[in-house]
Specification:
By secondary structure, the protein is an alpha/beta fold. It folds into two domains: about 180 residues, HUPs (Rossmann fold, 3-Layer(aba) Sandwich); about 90 residues, no CATH class. The chain is about 45% helix and about 10% strand. The protein contains ten helices and eight strands. A six-stranded mixed sheet has the order 5-4-3-6-8-7, with helices on one face. A two-stranded antiparallel sheet has the order 1-2. A hairpin with a 7-residue loop joins strand 7 and strand 8. It is elongated and about 70 Å long. The protein starts with a strand and ends with a helix.
Length: about 280
């Protein structure tokens, strides 16, 4: 794939097309979700080329790679850093459960709060990123963000298109990419595979320690909630037990959820409620 291609319908210039689509959003008060990764860099600079007014927002999660935050502050000082009302460490204790692929309460708390007072949210979602995202559209609405529309201007771009655009315009990128990182996001994110998470915790051991300390406080919260016999109802005895399950056991557990038990009725509410109840039962919380 390339940014400029000859098709049966003529020349397709992806950059020009994206810029034209960007200009069509000018009067919709757009907010651009900026992660500091290559895809969000791409849409940021396309919006600049389009000459539209927009707010660029980075949602801090408190488990962000330090290099990424430094990169954003250095090269994108106009990006608004949205600080959460609660840290990951306190959120884990509050939920009495580690975040998992099914129970992604951290995404809801840190990344899915939208942009208040903005009618349009621009993202760097691409079809080629995952099977789930391959079903997304260029223009979308979302029940969780009533009143807002989503616009994904590079949804049909390949990864090579993104790099061609950035490198062709001499746009600096986060140094983690140069060290072989393919995905730049929250440290320890359960959506990443085990090898990536092991690599992250090897690089950032203080974050591993922070997770373990948080899991220790979480167990105390479970004890307060369950009472004197709390250990009889959970397989987690220590914070290290929780961390091991968080790294290696969670995926095995949620794969045992009976097929067909998810995705009934409303997507979010039913999906979250059934998966949460099942996993809480397994962990004894």
């Amino acid at each position: 794939m390339a940014l400029v291609e000859n098709t049966l319908f003529g020349v397709d210039d992806k950059v020009k097309r994206a810029i034209q689509n960007m200009r069509a959003t000018e009067y919709q008060n757009p907010c651009l979700k900026f992660s500091g990764g290559k895809d969000s860099q791409c849409i940021y600079h396309l919006a600049k080329e389009a000459g539209i007014d927009f707010r660029a927002q980075y949602d801090l999660t408190t488990v962000d790679p330090p290099e990424l935050v430094d990169f954003i502050r250095t090269y994108y000082p106009d990006v608004v850093i949205n600080r959460p009302k609660i840290t990951m460490w306190r959120l884990i204790v509050k939920k009495r459960m580690p975040p998992t692929r099914l129970i992604r309460y951290c995404c809801d708390a840190f990344k899915e709060q939208g942009c208040p007072n903005h009618n349009l949210i621009i993202t760097g979602v691409r079809w080629k990123e995952s099977k789930r995202r391959s079903k997304r559209g260029m223009w979308e609405t979302c029940q969780a963000h009533k009143g807002s529309e989503f616009f994904n201007p590079i949804i049909d771009w390949d990864e090579s298109d993104v790099w061609e655009y950035l490198n062709g315009n001499n746009i600096p990128h986060c140094s983690l990419y140069d060290e072989g990182w393919k995905r730049i996001g929250c440290i320890g994110c359960p959506m990443a595979n085990t090898k990536i998470r092991e690599k992250e915790f090897a690089r950032y051991p203080k974050y591993k320690d922070a997770y373990i300390r948080s899991f220790d406080r979480m167990l105390k919260a479970i004890k307060d909630y369950k009472g004197a016999n709390w250990q009889a109802s959970t397989k987690w005895k220590t914070a290290e037990d929780v961390f091991h399950w968080f790294m290696y056991g969670a995926e095995k557990d949620y794969k045992r959820i009976p097929e067909g038990e998810l995705f009934k009725g409303d997507y979010y509410e039913q999906y979250y409620r059934e998966s949460e109840a099942w996993l809480y039962q397994q962990s004894g919380t």
